[in-house]
């Protein structure tokens, strides 16, 4: 749109020049000048030259101004265009700061934490956590959901309070809880697919069918986080209070935002990288079968086991971020390759874990999630219809499970990225093909996707380069045009 505008003004400029040069020497004005007195003639000539110069300059000025504006509008969305508003409370903030520290950087991320009241003993290292804002009074709004928490109103109103701060150069407002872990670069890339001057409400619903039935399939669940374009947020901030009066019967803050946006006529744009994580136990099955969209958020990590064995939650997440910080777009991206000589299948979730399976498994089977987790509601039935995705069993017998290699380290230099995975020993059931295999090294290039590639992502391919006795080396690369991820026989 801006490109077209620029062309139009370009045309009108050259047209103007063309018209002027056509008119000037030959036109009847010129003939009429000849019969006028010499002094008047030269006066008119000078006047017309001055007029021409003025016209040309003013056109140039307008043209330059317009292209300056359009350049600013199409400049790629960057970290500083996002303003995060984190919903927290004086009770939970000290415990959850460690989650926020993972993704927040005072130099490149803009964020505020909204609390009900000041924290009694603030953390000593204030520099690396976002500034705290104390929420306004919400006592005039009704809350009638039995057994719910009235703080839902305060949290919903964060949307208005952060917009009303008039922070400059914000393209997207992003909302999350204090236990939402964001992957900021991936969020920036995801949002850059959309025009922040249009009205967008972007997020994802729950993994739990039951939760979606209860709240809405079309609601962005607050813990997974959601983004609202600047233009929409400005309008929402103006009307939110009147919505809050009408939705006192709802449970959560996200339901209130969803309802108000629905009244504005806006629906959810679903992005599968946002994860509410309404599940407990081991997230392994979910993290090793991530969709092709980049990972944008993880939530409810307090309720899940640490994602790496032998570490506490904080350390395990920091370990994941060692890979995130080297190649954010590729984190968890699943790639599968085959070693024909040993008849092994390697399923890589980059930066996290590699599974080695005996035999040649078909790709679509590996894309479904292994059920390593349990439902959010402890009493819920664990059947195949509980979750919103396809699942396969995770065998109870450890000998029937894939062999798992967890991320050990990531290094990068100008030649590329090397990630190292070491074997997780559980059980003694080892076959001849794998009994000595202790280590897998993976080479890859940094995954940089432009907006067009983000809109139509394609899974990458890999090769088993060398298979030694104790270690395997794998290379991840772009697939060939007709290349299939399969064993070719
Ligand atoms: C932020 O910027 C300051 C000054 O430029 C620098 O000293 C500091 O190390 C930076 N911090 C981070 C976390 O990058
Ligand atoms: C933001 O701008 C509005 C309208 O210009 C003004 O009423 C309001 O006081 C401003 N808020 C802040 C925090 O500056
Ligand atoms: C996690 O483990 C590290 C190192 O053992 C320790 O410093 C840290 O306090 C632990 N964190 C929690 C929340 O237990
Ligand atoms: C493979 O490694 C194991 C353990 O280090 C060793 O005992 C065995 O001899 C090696 N086999 C070959 C063929 O190198």
Description:
With 489 residues, this protein is an alpha/beta fold. It has three domains: 2-34, no CATH class; 79-270, Alpha-Beta Complex (Spore Coat Polysaccharide Biosynthesis Protein SpsA, Chain A), CATH 3.90.550.50; 326-477, Mannose-6-phosphate receptor binding domain (Cation-dependent Mannose-6-phosphate Receptor, Chain A), CATH 2.70.130. It is built from 13 helices and 21 strands. The strands form five sheets. An eight-stranded mixed beta sheet has the order 11-12-13-17-18-19-21-20. A seven-stranded mixed beta sheet has the order 3-2-1-4-7-6-8. The protein has a two-stranded antiparallel sheet with strand order 5-10. Helix 1 (2-26) packs parallel to helix 2 and helix 8 packs across helix 9 (253-263). 36% of the residues are buried. Bound molecules: 2-acetamido-2-deoxy-beta-D-glucopyranose (NAG) (4 copies). One 2-acetamido-2-deoxy-beta-D-glucopyranose is lined by residues 312, 314-315.
């Amino acid at each position: 749109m801006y490109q077209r505008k620029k062309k139009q003004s370009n045309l009108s400029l050259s047209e103007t020049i063309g018209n002027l040069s056509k008119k000037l020497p030959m036109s009847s004005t010129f003939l009429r000048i000849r019969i006028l007195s010499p002094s008047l003639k030269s006066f008119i000539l000078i006047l017309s030259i001055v007029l021409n110069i003025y016209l040309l300059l003013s056109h140039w000025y307008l043209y330059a101004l317009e292209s300056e504006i359009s350049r600013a509008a199409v400049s790629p969305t960057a970290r500083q265009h996002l303003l995060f508003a984190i919903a927290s409370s004086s009770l939970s903030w000290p415990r959850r700061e460690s989650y926020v520290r993972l993704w927040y950087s005072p130099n490149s991320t803009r964020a505020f934490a909204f609390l009900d009241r000041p924290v009694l003993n603030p953390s000593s290292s204030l520099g690396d956590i976002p500034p705290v804002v104390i929420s306004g009074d919400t006592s005039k709004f009704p809350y009638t959901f039995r057994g719910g928490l009235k703080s839902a109103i305060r949290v919903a109103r964060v949307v208005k309070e952060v917009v009303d701060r008039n922070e400059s150069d914000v393209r997207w407002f992003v909302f999350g809880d204090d236990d939402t872990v964001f992957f900021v670069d991936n969020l920036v890339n995801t949002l850059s697919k959309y025009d922040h001057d249009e009205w967008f409400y972007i997020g994802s619903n729950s993994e739990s069918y039951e939760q979606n039935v209860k709240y809405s399939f079309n609601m962005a669940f607050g813990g997974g986080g959601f983004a609202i374009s600047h233009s929409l947020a400005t309008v929402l901030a103006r009307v939110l209070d009147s919505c809050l009066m009408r939705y006192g019967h709802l449970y959560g803050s996200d339901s209130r935002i969803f309802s108000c946006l629905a009244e504005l006529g806006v629906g959810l744009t679903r992005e599968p990288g946002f994860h509410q994580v309404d599940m407990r136990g081991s997230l392994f099955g979910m993290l090793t079968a991530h969709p092709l969209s980049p990972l944008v958020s993880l939530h409810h990590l307090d309720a899940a086991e640490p994602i790496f064995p032998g570490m506490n939650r904080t350390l395990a997440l920091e370990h994941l971020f060692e890979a995130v910080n080297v190649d954010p777009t590729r984190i968890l991206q699943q790639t599968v390759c085959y070693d024909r000589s040993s008849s092994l299948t390697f399923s890589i979730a980059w930066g996290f874990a590699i599974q080695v399976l005996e035999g040649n498994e078909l790709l679509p089977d590996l894309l479904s999630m292994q059920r390593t987790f349990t439902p959010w509601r402890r009493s819920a039935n664990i059947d195949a219809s509980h979750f919103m995705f396809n699942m396969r069993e995770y065998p109870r017998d450890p000998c029937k499970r894939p062999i798992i290699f967890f991320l050990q380290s990531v290094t990068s230099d100008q030649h590329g990225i090397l990630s190292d995975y070491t074997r997780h020993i559980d059980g003694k059931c080892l076959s001849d093909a794998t009994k000595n295999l202790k280590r897998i090294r993976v080479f890859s290039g940094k995954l940089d996707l432009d907006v067009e590639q983000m809109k139509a992502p394609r899974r990458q391919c890999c090769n088993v380069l060398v298979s030694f006795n104790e270690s395997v080396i794998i290379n991840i690369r772009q697939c060939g045009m007709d290349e299939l991820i399969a064993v070719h026989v």
